[in-house]
Amino acid sequence: MIHIGKTYLKRENNKSYLCSDVTIETKKLTLWFSIDSKYEDYLCLHRADAFVMALLIPATTYNYDIKCDDPISARLKYFLINQLIPNLAEHAEFNHNITIESDITTVPYKNKGAVGVGFSGGSDSLYTIMNHTKKDCEYPLTHIAVFNGVSFEKFKENASKIYLENCKAAQRFADELNLKLVTLDTNFYETLNWKFTNEISTYRNISCALALQGLFNSYLISSFHSNLKSFRIIRYGCAFYDLLTISSTSTESLNIYLSGGNADKVEKISELSNWEPSYKYLHSCVSPKEPGKKNCGICKKCKDAQIILYALGKLDNYNTVFDIKKFKENLPKLIAYYLVRSDHLAKSIVKLLEKNNIEIPSQSLIIAKQMEKVIDLKKKNDTLFNDLY
Ligand SMILES: [Zn+2]
Known about the structure:
Layout: E1 2-12, E2 15-24, E3 27-36, H1 49-62, E4 66-68, E5 72-73, H2 74-91, E6 100-101, E7 104-105, E8 114-118, H3 123-131, E9 143-147, H4 159-176, E10 180-186, H5 188-191, H6 201-211, E11 216-222, H7 242-246, E12 255-259, H8 265-272, H9 277-281, H10 300-311, H11 324-329, H12 331-340, H13 344-355, H14 362-374, H15 382-388
């Protein structure tokens, strides 16, 4: 059993904390979300929504029923019980069809009518921001958000520092686009430390958005896996089933939308390459460098972004975020890497190179042949390729 106690506010050092005392079996802890006190009204008090979402994967994984002292928004509870939880339980043996015991409320939480999206600097996030700052878009953005809910956990002891650096970069970006920034800290890392963040990332993001139901009327999730083509319910990649999660987590006050389903990675980066704010803020990297500074250039995501921009003839615009000299030195090996890879993205990238008449260096063909010889294609993985690059 997971027992989620009544929510309450605590104030300390100009911060306001939305708290709940939680008991997981016999372990007692206090979960909190915190925000600058001047924005205290944004926090959603007297509803268990955000806490239920934060605890849903621990509950379904370890078969803990949930009991809440505060009510849950009726729409959210209905979706969870009738849609999300039974689908998880049916399709993935490690999840369980748990129950949720709570009152419900159908009264919308009074909010500021804001429209928000998370800012990471990644191509999915920037693509959403680009499209939702266009004239006449359906949900014009008012806020970008940085949540310390999960994204920075992988950086362990540096997580807080990297969160704060991201907040600073996000503020510069928001100022340039005339958007507002909202930042929300949590103590999830200390209290709910979860080994594989890919299992929980979407849940934690939505949990933070639900904690801000005093602000948001609409919240957009920028997903890489936003269409049925890549839809899968798997434990170690909750983003693969974002379509299900996101369609199951709105409330009477807050609508959660999945954005970017109309474009794949190549299309997103192609469109972004014509959008000037991306030149300084594209942060495709998985390493802990904050948006607005240099990407590592060698992780898989950096390689993908650079080669696509190179194929488009736009890479030089990104000289503040990528080391283009280093990229060009490694180009033959990098192209070989894409020639050998057999996944959909790599194939699209090779097609783009061909379509734009980018010459494939003869050295790339030789390296690709060598790679094919030493690599069992069925077992190939990016770690091996990373060593070769
Ligand atoms: Zn990188």
